[in-house]
Amino acid sequence: MEQKDRRVQHMHPSDNVVVALVELPPNTAISFAGKHIVTRARVPFGHKMAVCTIPRGTPVIKYGESIGVATADVVCGDHVHSHNLVTERGIQRRDNDG
Questions:
Q1: CATH number, domain containing residue 30
Q2: In a domain, 1, yes or no
Q3: Counting beta carbons within 10 angstroms of the beta carbon of residue 86, is it exposed (0 to 12), middle (13 to 18) or buried (19 or more)?
Q4: 88 CA to centre of own chain
Q5: pLDDT tens digits for 12-62?
Q6: How many domains does the chain have?
Q7: Global pTM value
């Protein structure tokens, strides 16, 4: 049986991100649920990291639910945050702005 990597939390089996429970430096190897991923950039504590490719315009899934949409192509191991994710609340706000 695979040892659980306590540096990340995968909230739901359908999630395409994990949450960093510690700061993860670039090139850190992470293993969970049979997946092996290497961070491509620093992932701060509490932030998200992609566990698969998330194409631009695709939902980012956390807790088994969409928390927003990728604003750029996100590669497995990328830090996922406001530089490449817009929340659905942000989309609604933009749609109502003009």
A1: 2.30.130.110
A2: no
A3: middle
A4: 15
A5: 999 999 999 999 999 999 998 889 999 999 999 999 999 999 999 999 999
A6: 1
A7: 0.85
